[in-house]
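so my prof wants the structure for this chain in the tokens format not the other one, which i didnt know existed until like an hour ago. anyway here's the sequence
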Amino acid sequence: MAPAVAAGGRVGTIDAPAAAAAAQKKPCACGFQVCACTGSAAVASLDMDIMDSGRIGPVNTEGWVGVELGPETDESGGVVDDRPVFRTEKIKGVLLYPYRVLIFVRLIAFTLFVIWRISHKNPDAMWLWVTSICGEFWFGFSWLLDQLPKLNPINRVPDLAVLRQRFDRPDGTSTLPGLDIFVTTADPFKEPILSTANSVLSILAADYPVDRNTCYVSDDSGMLLTYEALAEASKFATLWVPFCRKHGIEPRGPESYFELKSHPYMGRAQDEFVNDRRRVRKEYDEFKARINSLEHDIKQRNDGYNAANAHREGEPRPTWMADGNQWEGTWVDASENHRKGDHAGIVLVLLEHPSHNRQFGPPASADNPLDFSTVDVRLPMLVYVSREKRPGVNHQKKAGAMNALTRASGLLSNAPFILNLDCDHYINNSQALRAGICFMVGRDSDTVAFVQFPQRFEGVDPTDLYANHNRIFFDGTLRALDGMQGPIYVGTGCLFRRITVYAFDPPRINVGGPCFPMLGGMFAKTKYQKPGLEMTMAKAKAAPVPAKGKHGFLPLPKKTYGKSEAFVDSIPRASHPSPYEAAEGVVTDEATMAEAVNVTAAEFERKTGWGKEIGWVYDTVTEDVVTGYRMHIKGWRSRYCSIYPHAFIGTAPINLTERLFQVLRWSTGSLEIFFSKNNPLFGSTYLHPLQRVAYINITTYPFTAIFLIFYTTVPALSFVTGHFIVQRPTTMFYVYLGIVLSTLLVIAVLEVKWAGVTVFEWFRNGQFWMTASCSAYLQAVFQVLIKVIFQRDISFKLTSKLPTGDEKKDPYADLYVVRWTPLMITPIIVIFVNIIGSAVAFAKVLDGEWTHWLKVAGGVFFNFWVLFHLYPFAKGILGKHGKTPVVVLVWWAFTFVITAVLYINIPHIHHSSGAKHTTVAHGHHGQKFVGWP
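here's what i got, hopefully its the right format
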């Protein structure tokens, strides 16, 4: 059976023969000539009404129903269009109402459970009783923080057919707004340059107006290696991009495309496709060879030039570009002013801004075997940026790079929207840019600050051992927040409205949204007359200039933006729709390029508002969350865009160590927010109440580690000491506990249903949550407390995504490479404590100390529940892929048996522990075991 997209974006099935027959007539509703709705493995066919819809939707929409909002109107009440560029969906009542009721029931049951626990003290171990009560209260509180923002999830689906109808012209031009795409990289050795090149190639080949799409690559290393890799990519793009347009290639990252096992085709030149693909594949292999040899070629070139210039021993040895000029950035042989962290700023245009009219390529010939005579061969503008770095200056890592790109791009292209991508993320769906723009030009979009796409990854083993996909967070939490004020900003795959980066206020504020309109109305207000240029089409046409605010056309004093008149003059023109006439072209003259270098200087931000009032926020590990939070507290909203095929795909951390360091960085940053002035408890009243709850949850979740360590060790140790958390459980204890656990499972099943994830992914998420809590979260708590108390900065290394294993023999070999880190100590201790505790309980039952073995079963079951959650961790630190499960089970069984045998056969441990327990147990009506671990 082949999948087909039904009306409204739902996925159904059709017979394969019918699909093949219909495929010759109509393309898929996803908008691709080559349908990738099943991972580029099959071709789907559609009816004409589906073709007309042109909608892209999530994988699973069975639990959603459309919301009728009526036609879009302008401020005068006139109808703009009866078909919105995106539609809004809510969860069906059959799922939503039981979901809400169960949350309420579980809250009551948990409250009664805590009351029972407080009223039944353990006089033999008060410290144990008090600590356990605190832990249970925290678990319930953190669950409530996580659950409340999910009370009313909504889903938004873009309609690309309507977008094309409104903005695309018959002559091939378009009135879509301009888009600047930022790609950031910091180290070409830890972040492979081939991945960066593939990311850039996918951007250049994306389905967006060529003259309105500019790609900026920020290289914080300042190395010639990155620049020359981009130069090679720009040359290969002259072949790759027209090839993609001619044959409707998906995905448009060449590495990912050529790795596909099948290449279904629905283009217009099927006879030419095989030959064209073979030719492009050959060129790509040569391109990869040149990329991989760049480091050696640059060193060889340097040796030749330096030998010709007769450099003496001890003199600086420059790094030379291919054109014979000295590289101004970091040299291979580092020297003063040319080393990492100490080099000049560089802004170079690799591909000039194209013309506004289509330009067709040459026909096939002996020199050019590919026929591009009917294909637009223009390429988007490509700019290399390496900001100046100097010793003693805090360059603020990625946040500083993003702010430098914002200023440089403001001078060159100044597009009203910005998309930021990490260098290991490529555009997997060529329609992704258009899908994101739908939420920026549609209904009430002038109050939308950013559109967040979910993060998807490749290179993850089929079992997703370390929960890299994290779909519970992306498809559950972030989609639910779209029903409040919007999802949080998670660092990459995010489309921004440029003026929000410049600290403009929204034209109006209504934090209630479609889910809570009455609540939103309580906070709705007009701040002052259009301070931020964000104007409707009607006003943009009527007003020759925008209305002035307190600081003229700027929301803040002019000096806040820095000492660049040209950059400050570009700010009022960054709005969409703009009251100004569109520029004829991007200016890249010598004076403008010199000014672009100036605004990326190391000292430019001194005594300005960059990193504090405007731009990406500084002095935090998680600049992404804080930057989005700053926009939300101003009253801006955000939206979540999950489409299929996935918009962007990145590279996951290569092994357990790198994954733990990644989580450590995130959790540390979250706690830093909690202990800073950005604490959501004190945010403005423009923040939606449940959005505030979500931010509190995001900034406090690592504290769970403190109580989880207690709960994963103390119950196991209770078998040895004889002191238990609950000394004498009653029937009501079991009733309350049963309701709490059963409602939790049913709520999870309902979330899995509407979020479109699988039960297996839910279990994997819980397993890695246990691993992270016992390792990264715990260390994050200690690090942040040390920082707060002793005022010590926290530093992190860049997450390595460069494979080192033999991928030909095992594509997942790197996932199981063991690289020791202290983060692994605590989970290992927890594993052994639970094995030993279970073994001691088993030994006591066998030895006759405890005759009521059924009551031991509950505690032993809990121990094995802990071990089950730490199983992926154990698998990651022992052995190779496919062989580890047996090793893990053998070691666990061996430890269990040895502990039980030693306990029974060592008299000192046996009698001392037994005597101690007898004293405790016989103090309660003569029973030998009445405890509940």
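also thought this was worth mentioning. Residues 1-55, 513-547, 580-584, 911-933 have pLDDT under 50 and may be disordered.
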